[in-house]
Structure formats: structure tokens, C-alpha cells
Amino acid sequence: MKRATIADLSREAGVSVATVDRVLNGRLKVREETARRVHEAARRIGFHGANAIHSRILSDLPEMHFGIILQKSAHAFYKAFAKEIDDQLRAHTGHRLRATIRFAESTRPAELAGLLASMAGKVQAVAATGLDHHEVTRAVADLRAAGIPTFSLLSDFAQDVRESYVGLNNLKVGRAIGWLMSNIARRPGKVAAFVGGHRYHGHELRETGLRSAFREYAPDLEMLGALLNLEERQVTYETTHAILEKHPDLVGIYCAGGGMEGAIAALRESGRAQEVMLVVNELTDDSRQALQDGTVKIVMGTPLRQLGAELVPLMVHTVEKGMTGSPGQRFLPFEIWTPESL
Fold it and tell me: Is the pTM of this model over 0.85?
């Protein structure tokens, strides 16, 4: 294939060859809008200088550095989340944005608090997923005192000192799951719910919503006590086998957080996938396959692209305009996936 030339780029971008030359070499100032049009055209036609154009556009923009803290680096969902945030930072116009992304590998409050504290003096804003605990709240308050706003993601924490929450309305998610399960259940029985930890605010709200919906729509469905799985596959696997053996009248399982792979594997092995409803969070390769083979009945999803599109401008705006006096929240619509959605 013939290599694209400056003349090809000029035609694709709808500007003169001289303008393309100025963008490439920076001899004279070119409007940002024009430079971006040339860059997009360069990407479309595979022009060899596309990266150089992009670097030149960014060089004149103000820079911002964000800290991002997610959970469990090995989890497919958090890998996808990290990539989506990175994509949103790259796509943002008007600033050079970069992020330091870290992962909490346990459910210990001290680990998350330490990761938050490590961002002080290095970034201009922080966004994090994690549990709600007084050690975490103290770390967020210290960041705020240093002029660094913190945004909670997916599961809220430090409500009185964080800048804003961005994620789903988790109480509504729990009620939606309860309504769906009450309409799918073929017989009365017990329902088990896994939570990642006792301090995950989002998990607690989902469990509360689930119980509330059962009281209203399906009083013949009995909720077992919340099962702690630390968002670990093996813990979820072993506990699922145990409750299947202990409760022959089990009709449903809901994983409010991570670790769903263990429940999927155990339910497959038990041979009871057709009689026990399994509802999990987030569409990954594992949950997609489980939907297709009937092991999972429903997947509740977070619109990661929309979350990133909300979060990044919000962080930029807060850094530029300053923190608000009253913490806020932004709820996103949740996704519902069934076998017929795929």
C-alpha cells in the first residue's frame, strides 16, 4: 500500500498543504480546532506523522495529573475499568491529562487508606473504588485539607468529606434484582447474597434493596444472611457448594460484588443451574459465557464508558473551579443483560 503523503493528508483534512506543514513543524501557530482536524485525518489515512501531530497539539495545553485507585488488579472488570478511564483521559480536549492508577488487592481499610495517602502532593484529584471505613474517611479528609478532591466510584465512602460519588444507585439496583428474581422464581425457597465485605456501602445497599423488594413482591422468597466472600473466586466457590448442599430449597444466588466466577463454577458442577437463579454483576468473558450456557440468568452492568465520560470532566472542572461546599452524587443508569441480550 502506498504511503500517505502530505498532499493526501491535506485533502482528507480539508485544509491547505501549507496548513498541514505548519501543524507538522510548528513554524506558525495553528488553531487548536484545525490541528485536531489534521490529527484525526492523519489517523484515518495512516499518515506516518500522526503521533507527532498529537504530541504537538498536547504540548501547548495545561497539564493535570489524577490519581485513580481501583480494586483487584486481576479482575477482568477492573482491568476494563482502568482501560476505559485511560481512554477517556486520552480523548479529553483542552488539557493534557495523565493518571497514576493503583489497585487495592485486599479488603483491608488500611490498604485503601494508605493508597489514598500516597497520592498527596503528587496529583491534583483522586478517584477511587473501595470500602467505607473511618481510616478511609480520615485519609480523604487529609487529601481535602491539602486541596485534593476525592471522588468515590461504584460504592460510596467518606460521604461527608469526599467531593462526589459517581456510579449506580445501588439501592435501586438491589430492588430491581429483587423484582426480577421474584418474577423468575418457579417456586418458593431461599435466596443467598454474597457481599465483598461488611464495609462496602454499595453492597450493603444492594442487599437492602433486594430484601425490600422480596418483602413487597415475593414474601415466599426467604433471604439468608449475607455471605462474605472478600470478592475472591475460591471463597465464593467453596461457599456456593456449601449452601447448595445445606439448602435443597435454594432458588437463587446473587453476587453483589466480585468473585462471581466461583459461583458460576460451583453451580455448573452441581447440576442445579436450571433450578437456581444466579444473578451477577458486570458483563465479562466469564459472565457472558455463563449467560449463554444458562448458568447465569441475569447480569447487572455498569456503563463504564458513560462513567468515564462523567468522571473525567467532573475532575477537571473541580480542579479548575475548586471544591464545592456540599458533597454531591451522580447516578448512572444500570444495564440489564439476559441470555436474549447477547
Answer: no
Reading phi first (left if > 0) and then psi (alpha if -120 to 50, else beta), residue 103 is in beta
Q: In the chain, where are the structural domains located?
A: 6-59, 63-168+304-331, 170-301
Could you tell me which residues come within 8 angstroms of residue 299 by beta carbon, excluding any fewer than 6 positions away?
Answer: 279, 280, 281, 282, 283, 287, 288, 291, 335, 336, 337, 338
Q: Parallel, antiparallel, or unpaired: how do β-strands 335-337 and 298-301 relate?
A: antiparallel
Architecture of domain 170-301 in this structure: 3-Layer(aba) Sandwich (3.40)
251-301 pLDDT, tens digit per residue, is 999 999 999 999 999 999 999 999 999 999 999 999 999 999 999 999 999
Q: How far is CA 240 from the centre of its chain?
A: 26
**Which CATH class, in words, describes the domain spanning 6-59?**
mainly alpha
- For residue range 212-236, list pLDDT tens digits in order: 999 999 999 999 999 999 999 999 9
Domain pair 63-168+304-331 / 170-301, same fold: yes
Angle between helices 260-270 and 233-246 (to 10 degrees): 40
Pick from 187, 238, 176: which is nearest to 210 by CA? 176
Cβ–Cβ under 8 Å, residues 150 and 163: yes
**C-alpha cell recorded at residue 55:** 504530541
Superfamily per CATH, domain 63-168+304-331: Response regulator (3.40.50.2300)
Integer Cα distance of 25 and 2 in angstroms: 23
What does the alpha-carbon distance between residue 7 and residue 52 come to, in Å, rounded to a whole number?
17
* Strands, E assignment, 282-334: 298-301, 328-332
Closest by CA to 284, choosing from 275, 272, 274, 296, is 296
List Cβ neighbours of 140 (8 Å cut-off, separation of 6 or more).
116, 150, 157, 158, 161, 162
Reported residue count of the chain is: 342
